[in-house]
Input
Amino acid sequence: MKNVTNANRTVEQELGRFEKIISAFEKYIENQIGEIKQQSQLQTEEQKLMRGDGFQEAMRKQEEMQTTLNLITHNFNKVQEDSQDRASLVREELKAVEGALTQQL
Output
């Protein structure tokens, strides 16, 4: 019983650490997205001011940055889904071990 309690604590601690890591990734990606948006806006405005005929070029660069931003967002969502799936699997395994141990007792 003591081993199960220790195992439960360890799994809960690891899940807590894992959730903190995911949270840190979320904050980091949100900051990166915000910075990219700011850079995109600044570059677009600079291009407009510097030369009127370069507006198309600025728009092209902005579209490239938007594509990159979409890719980062997609990758972030994938990491988040994978981490949630992994946490669910760990919880299910822990419940199964706990159930088996309860039956043995």
Q: What stands out?
A: The two ends are 8 Å apart (CA to CA). The helical segments are 2-50, 55-104. Residues 2-104 form one domain. The chain has one domain: 2-104.
